[in-house]
């Protein structure tokens, strides 16, 4: 008999994995226990949980006439990229704010009685003023573009427009990953190469709405091996 797990949306990962294995084995034996729609819902919910039970190894697609493998979000790479952009944001912000605040503090130090904060700072002469203005200008030219780019990148990460996907190379089986844009206006798949066998790859993503949790959506997809129309030098993995 079919294992009862209750509503799929609230069922635990362990119960869904047990039902998934039971339904899969019964399907292969020629006696399916559940309908295809329910099986797809169970598989989708397990993908949300990040269960390894639904991660399938490289296989062939009859429709595309190409080998492919499943891809899932790589949260560790996502956090690493977020940390890098956060550090760049702090650097860019500091590059044009710190010189500005320092110069303003020196300029208005006498008026606010804050001369003692700057170890004998005196009234700025003409050359000193020019130097500080140059410092502010350089800080703005360097820091503002870095900070602006960092803000845009972090917005893309937080709104799920850019995700880190990992999967197995359909050619050699090594783990590959890529940062993929999920904007629906971008129709073309993300293209990359395997870092081991140099096989050309395509990442195709699918965005699903999250029924629970802080994130509004989550992403998964597939890694396809691209067929070449002309010979290309690369290392193929032999049996």
Helix-strand layout with pairing:
Layout: H1 13-28, H2 36-49, E1 59-61, E2 66-73, H3 75-107, H4 126-158, E3 162-168, E4 175-181, E5 190-193, E6 200-209, E7 217-225
Antiparallel strand pairs: 1-2, 2-3, 2-7, 3-4, 5-6, 6-7
Word description of this protein:
Keywords: Membrane, Transmembrane, Transmembrane helix. One of its GO terms (biological process) is photosynthetic electron transport in photosystem I. One of its GO terms (molecular function) is oxidoreductase activity, acting on iron-sulfur proteins as donors. The chain crosses the membrane at residues 84-109, 130-147. With 239 residues, the protein is an alpha+beta fold. The chain contains four helices and seven strands; from the N terminus they run ααββααβββββ. Among the domains are: 1-54, no CATH class; 76-158. Strands 1, 2, 3, 4, 5, 6 and 7 form a seven-stranded antiparallel sheet that branches. Helix 1 crosses helix 2 (36-49) and helix 3 (75-107) runs antiparallel to helix 4. The chain is elongated, with a radius of gyration of 27 Å.
Q: What composes the largest sheet?
A: 7 strands, antiparallel
Strand content: 15-25%
- List SSEs in N-to-C order: HHEEHHEEEEE
**Shape by Cα distribution:** elongated
Whole-Å distance between the termini? 41 Å
What's the number of extended β-strand segments?
Answer: 7
Report low-confidence residues grouped into runs of 5 or more. Answer: 114-124, 230-239
What distinguishing features does this structure have?
239 residues; alpha+beta; seven-stranded antiparallel sheet; 7 strands; 40% helix; disordered C terminus
């Amino acid at each position: 008999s079919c294992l009862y797990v209750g509503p799929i949306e609230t069922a635990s990962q362990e119960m869904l994995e047990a039902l998934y294995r039971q339904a899969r084995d019964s399907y292969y034996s020629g006696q399916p226990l559940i309908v295809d729609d329910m099986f797809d819902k169970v598989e989708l919910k397990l993908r949300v949980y990040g269960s390894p039970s639904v991660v399938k190894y490289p296989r062939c697609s009859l429709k595309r006439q190409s080998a492919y493998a499943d891809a899932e979000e790589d949260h560790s790479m996502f956090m690493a990229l977020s940390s890098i952009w956060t550090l760049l944001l702090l650097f860019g912000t500091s590059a044009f704010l710190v010189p500005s605040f320092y110069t303003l503090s020196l300029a208005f130090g006498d008026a606010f009685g804050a001369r003692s904060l700057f170890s004998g700072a005196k009234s700025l002469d003409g050359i000193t003023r020019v130097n500080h203005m140059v410092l502010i200008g350089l800080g703005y030219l360097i820091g503002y573009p870095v900070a602006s780019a960092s803000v845009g990148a972090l917005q893309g990460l937080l709104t799920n427009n850019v995700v880190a996907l990992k999967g197995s190379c359909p050619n050699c089986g090594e783990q590959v990953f890529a940062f993929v844009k999920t904007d629906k206006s971008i129709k073309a798949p993300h293209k990359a190469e395997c870092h081991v066998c140099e096989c050309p790859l395509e990442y195709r993503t699918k965005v699903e709405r999250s029924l629970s949790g802080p994130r509004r959506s989550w992403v998964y997809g597939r890694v396809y091996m691209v067929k070449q129309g002309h010979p290309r030098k690369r290392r193929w993995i032999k049996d």
